[in-house]
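This week, think about what follows.
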Amino acid sequence: MKITDLIACHDFSCQDINKKCYILPDIDIDPETIKILMISEAPPHNLTDYYYTNNSPFYMETTIKAFKDAGIDVSSIEEILDLGVYITTAIKCGKIGYSISAATIKHCSEILEKEISQFPNLQCFMLMGDVAIKAFCYITKRNIGKRVIPSGSTYKIRKDKFYYEDKRVFPSYLQTGKNYLIEKSKRKMIAEDIKNAFDEIKNS
């Protein structure tokens, strides 16, 4: 299966994104093997840094560090996929400014919802940062009438247990970008969340 064959943005109506950086995972995946869906923020300005590109993309450099911090020895996106983890972004186009509007997150959450629906054996979601949390909550509000992650600082709620359709949902922090390399406390929490997500699928 290729996600790019199944979903797409058809109108590009959002005003606060860089459409030139529009991208979706373009790789063959067996959807039935995916147990963890990791959702980060948005594609990089330089698409050669995207998860599924060759030659050590920066998004993968920091993601691999996060997995290794969690005690999971991987060196590529293929190895991460082999562990049953699929990585995507909540927003499918690049950012223009520091923040992304609620309207854009809501619009793109419809594409994300279709993407999620392609994986029948998901057991947990990892929401890497505020944008991913907001996008996921738009999805849950459409389907069950409420957000599954309460408003508030992530560090205050991340150790609580949240579920959507019997699947564990982990609110966490963004594992990409230069800030990941310097924010040691967040890096530690990301590693804990990844480890806990793997423990979740082992015990289920």
The longest strand covers residues 167-172. The first helix runs from residue 58 to 69. The two ends are 25 Å apart (CA to CA). Helices lie at 58-69, 77-82, 102-116, 130-144, 154-157, 178-182, 184-203.
